[in-house]
Amino acid sequence: MPLISELEQRVRQHLAGLDAAGLRRHLRPPTGVDLSSNDYLGMATHPVLKERMAEAVLREGCGATASRLLRGERASFAAVERRFAEFKRTEAALFFSSGYAANIAVLSTFLESTDVVFSDELNHASLIDGMRLGRARRVIFPHGNIEAFSRLLEAEHCAGQRFLVTESLFSMEGDVAPLAEYAALCRATGTALIVDEAHAVGIYGARGSGLIEASGIEEDVFLSVNTAGKALGVGGAFVAGSAWAVEYLIQRARPFIFSTAPPPAMAAAIDAALTVIAEEPERRTQLLERAARLRELLADRGVTVLPGRSQILPVIVGDNARSTAVASTLQAKGFDVRAIRPPTVPSGTARLRIAVNVSLNEATMHAFVAALVAAMAETAPCREVSF
After folding, report:
1. Which pairing describes strands 116-120 and 92-96: parallel, antiparallel, or unpaired?
2. Is 124 a catalytic residue?
3. Where are the domains of the chain?
4. For domain 47-279, which architecture applies?
5. Can 226 be counted among the known catalytic residues?
6. DSSP string covering 335-355, please?
7. Catalytic residue among 34, 39, 120, 167
8. How confident is the model at residue 382 (pLDDT cuts 50, 70, 90)?
9. pLDDT one-digit tens code per residue, 345-356
């Protein structure tokens, strides 16, 4: 048997540490009732999207074969970018292979060494990593705290450009950033506002374009990042904004320049998704009604959900091991809920992230709430009794 290398020993020690902390992750396919995915509108299995994507594969093949600046460009990419820009009411949009790549591209491209970037403490990992790759000085402020941001904005010296980076709907908290207040401060101070609309695009606003639209701040946003793999049901992501900013990304954004383009068929499916969102607004209405109803049912049974009105309902468990135990119990009963643990969320706040989708009905929600209450009771820590 070969000797274990020092590298393997080191890695095995790290894995053992994850086991000891209850933080080892495991890959498992979906089973049971979906209460964990981001397919909020049920678009991933919509017959129109599937048909359009299949037709595009037969027409254009499976892969783009190169980056878009080589041989990977397609007319379908340019067409869906134009349509998405119209959807977001911006001059232009640029399609990336994922939301992670889009966030890395935006922040590593525009942030320069003389700049300061203000970041919500609960921003997504892709935003954090993008800011790390950018050369600007980072200033982190308490989650959603407009007063703290305002104070820091006034206090922090900046020789270059100021940026504010925030999600619109926070994926692990289920709450909404004070976008209108941010926009007013950014407008008054010349701060460039960058908004990640990953969990809002397709759902909020009169046209479903997101919380930027719903907040009435479309003219105040420098760039937005909009994933197409959540409510839109496909994959990839669009950066939307001014034509000059999008052109600069094409010229300088390394994740765009040096990545093979996404499969062309994705463009056809996303185009179909935008049509469905426009023609079937009841999906968005039903989603938020079901989310409100599930919050009500959970509250009636004494289950505390973090405040919010979105389709994301976080139930804080706290302990890592208990959160996975509750999730496993629910999965065994046919409800696909996943435990979310550090570093995805802050230490001590392990939780169940309940994601509502339009397919949930009243009977399923009642059964799920009953199963959750029972699972929480079964895994409750024992209390010491004094005599």
Report:
1. unpaired
2. yes
3. 23-40+281-378, 47-279
4. 3-Layer(aba) Sandwich (3.40)
5. no
6. EE--EE-TTSS-TT-EEEEEE
7. 167
8. low
9. 999 999 999 999
